[in-house]
Design a protein that fits this description.
The protein is α+β, with helices and mostly antiparallel strands and about 160 residues long. It has one helix and eight strands.
C-alpha cells in the first residue's frame, strides 16, 4: 500500500491501492500507444484530434479522431472483467436539436485479460453531429445503451 501506514484507516489504504492501480493502468496504456505508433507510424495530420475519455475506477482511454481517414481510433485500459453474458459496447451520441441525445452502436469492444481494448470505428456520414462517445456494459445484441457508463467523452 504505497505510502500508506498499515495503521491508516481502511478507506485511505483502499484509496492508495486504487490510485496505484489507476497509475499502473495508465502506464500500460501509454506503452500500448507507443507500440501502436511504432507499428502503424505516428498519427499525424492537420485534422487529427485527440480526446481523453473520462471513466470510473481504473477505466481510462483516448480517442484519436481522423476525419481525413473517416475514422475514430479508441485505446482503452483499466476495464474490469464482466460477468458472463455481458460485453462492453461503444455508443455514438448525436444531439437532437441540442436537447436529446440519440445513441447508435459503434460496435462491441474486445477486451484482453489485462482490461485493455483498441478499436477503429468508421465515421458515419453525419459524423459532424456526433457529440459524445460512451462505453457501457450490455447484453449481446443491445440496440440502445441501458447499462452503466464506464467511459464517456465529449467530441
Amino acid at each position: 500500500w504505497i505510502g500508506t501506514s498499515v495503521h491508516a484507516p481502511q478507506s485511505e489504504r483502499v484509496a492508495a491501492v486504487d490510485a496505484a492501480a489507476r497509475q499502473e493502468a495508465r502506464q500500460r496504456l501509454a506503452q500500448r500507444i507507443e507500440a501502436a505508433k511504432q507499428t502503424h507510424g505516428p498519427a499525424e495530420g492537420p485534422d487529427l484530434r485527440y480526446a481523453a475519455m473520462k471513466g470510473e475506477a481504473a477505466a481510462h482511454g483516448y480517442i484519436a479522431r481522423d476525419p481525413s481517414a473517416r475514422q475514430w481510433h479508441l485505446l482503452i485500459g483499466g476495464l474490469a472483467e464482466l460477468p458472463e453474458g455481458r460485453a462492453y459496447h461503444v455508443w455514438l451520441g448525436v444531439e437532437d436539436d441540442g436537447q436529446q441525445v440519440k445513441w447508435t452502436s459503434g460496435g462491441v469492444l474486445r477486451v484482453d485479460g489485462q482490461g485493455s481494448a483498441s478499436m477503429v470505428i468508421s465515421m458515419p456520414d453525419d459524423s459532424q453531429s456526433v457529440a459524445r462517445l460512451m462505453v457501457t456494459d450490455e447484453r449481446p445484441g443491445a440496440e440502445a445503451p441501458t447499462g452503466r457508463p464506464h467511459l464517456v467523452s465529449d467530441l
